[in-house]
Each structure stands twice: as structure tokens, then as C-alpha cells.
Amino acid sequence: MVKRLTAWVLDGDPLGFGTMSSVARGRVREMMGEVMTAQGRSLPADDTADLREIGFRSLDFSELALRVEDELGDELNFDAPGLRRIATVGDVLDFIEQLQSA
Amino acid sequence: MSEVSLVPPATVVLVSGGSRGLGLAIVTDLLAAGLKVAAFARTVTPELRALGEKYPDHLHYGSVDVNDAKAGQAFVKQVEEVLGPIDALVNNAAIGQDSLHVHTSADHLAEIIQTNLTSPLILTRFVLRRMLAKGLKGRIVNITSICAQRGYPGLVAYSATKGGMDAATRSLARELGGRILANSVAPGFFASEMSAVLGQTQLDQIVRRTPTGHLTEPEDVLPVVRMLLLENTNINGQVLVVDGAASI
């Protein structure tokens, strides 16, 4: 039910910036860029970019998740194995989407 | 990719259990060092109130039970508004024990574990989430005890909680990747605590067996806590014992 609701919310948000009940992919990417900029690095436009190569570490993911939580008004808790599967920028965005719809 | 950036000295420090004993001494010491300090305890003592009058712009205090997570979190947000973002936490609040394990009720065991282990971990989690969300670096100092490393009768549950905090300290240091420095300070028995439960003969015997010739005082611990909060030492994930070598 929650999954369908989120999908509906995202479908109704053509600009990809989400609503009060979800933070959309475009906005999450923007926040990911902010996390990297704050550390003197930049986020490449390519979703296939390797996280190790661009220096995006697990703590950076935590910071991003906390920023998303802040906009979402809800906690996104997850186990470490889920995080270990993440290798690219696209994986990060997919994972945040999955967390929000879980 | 190599990334070397130091964790800056603490500027706003949250101290749990800061109304008396070692906690109050830590609060007093950090205020004297020019830091902004937030302190909470179940009961606000006249001594803490007096510090508030002396340092009105640098000290924020409140009556909060460390086991009341919601109240603790509300206090943290209040501190951020009054003093600015918290970049250091001193987990000092704890309750003691003076009962043999077989004669300690299950409820009292649970209370000791809740107060000395679960609640500090929950507070740490909340403060870390605020720090990371703001992109801050910071420092955590857990006040533990020599009981975590040596056995003492009458302190089974207490020792277990302090050992738990030391273990958590090491994992936090790993998990936080150098962005937050996490360390424990483990004092030996304070003279005041010992004199409350031991006779003069026993006290004299312990002092004789302590290479430095004196029991630990809060004043011995303060420079160590201050160092961990302010200095660049690359000490991380460690337990620093302050006991005059009584335990070695």
C-alpha cells in the first residue's frame, strides 16, 4: 500500500522533486551533490559513476540519508548488508527510493 | 583517495549527568576553558544553578532523566537553539551498584543496564544523527570505569555496562571513519566513593597498593577529558585509564 502510494506520489510529480510524503530522485541527487560539495568534491552527472572513484563513502551515505530523512520527516533505518550492495551513484538513488517505499 | 582532515576542537559540549560529582567537575572545567556547555541531570543542583549564573551565555542546563529519550532529544534541540550545534558529547550519567549479583533484583539489573548502557547509546545515536546531518565533525567521550577491565564484587551489572560502553566506543571509532573521535575515560575508584563503603584500614591498604600513592580524584580526570575534546592527538577508539596504576 505504502509502495503504491509512493509510486502515485512520484507519478504526480513530473519535475522529480517529490512531495511532502517522499523525496524524489532528482532532489536526492541534488542533496547527494551538496554532501559531496561540502567535502570539496563534485558529483558527476553520470549515474554509473563508481562511488569509490568519486570518494563517496558510507558515512557520506549516512549524511545523505539523514538529509533525506529531514525533508521526509521520517527515519530511514536499514541494515549494513543493503549498503554494501551499493557501488554507483545510481545505486544510491535506487536504494534511497527503495527505503522510502519500504 | 587519501583524505586527511582533522576533527576540530569541540565548541559546544553536551554533558549528561552534569549536576554533581565528576559530571559537575567536567562542566565547570569546560566552562573555565571557554567552551559552551549544555548539562542535564535528573535533578538540577544549586552548584549547577550557580554555574548558570556565572556563565549565562555559555551554560545551558535542564532537568532531564537520561532514561527519558524524548525529553533528552527535546533538550538537545533546545541546546542547539540556545548555544548552537552540538559537536561533542560526554556520556557521564550513570547509576552505581553496591550489591552482590545473586541479591540484585532483576528489575534493578534492568535499571542499571538501561541507565548506564542503553540510554547513553540512544543519546549518542541521536546526537550523532544531528552532527552528521549538519555535516559536522565531532567528539564523543564516554566516562566508563576501571570496573570494565578488572573484577570487583558487588559491581557485576555496573561492570557489564561499563565494559559495554568501552566496546561501543571502539566500534563507534571504526564506524565513524575518523569524522567523529570516540574515546572512553575509565577512572579508578574515587576517594569519595571508596570512603563511603570502606573503612580507614581498607582505604590505607588500597592506597599503599597504588603506585602513585593516592586514589583517583575528579581533578585527575578533567585534563584527560579536556584533551580528548580539544586537542589533536589522533587518539581514537581508546580507553584511557586514570587510576594511578592501581589496576595493573
Automatic annotation (TrEMBL), chain A:
Residues 22-100 form the Carrier domain. This is Acyl carrier protein. Gene3D superfamilies: ACP-like. PROSITE patterns: CARRIER (PS50075). Coiled coil: none annotated. InterPro entries: ACP-like_sf (IPR036736), PP-bd_ACP (IPR009081).
From TrEMBL, chain B:
It comes from the Bacteria. InterPro entries: KR_dom, NAD(P)-bd_dom_sf, SDR_fam. It comes from Kribbella pratensis. SUPFAM superfamilies: NAD(P)-binding Rossmann-fold domains. This is 3-oxoacyl-[acyl-carrier protein] reductase. Residues 11-193 form the Ketoreductase domain. Belongs to the short-chain dehydrogenases/reductases (SDR) family. One of its GO terms (molecular function) is oxidoreductase activity, acting on the CH-OH group of donors, NAD or NADP as acceptor. Signal peptide: none annotated. Pfam families: adh_short. SMART domains: PKS_KR (SM00822). The lineage of its organism: Bacteria, Bacillati, Actinomycetota, Actinomycetes, Propionibacteriales. PANTHER family: 3-OXOACYL-[ACYL-CARRIER-PROTEIN] REDUCTASE, CHLOROPLASTIC, SHORT-CHAIN DEHYDROGENASES/REDUCTASES FAMILY MEMBER. GO terms for biological process: fatty acid elongation.
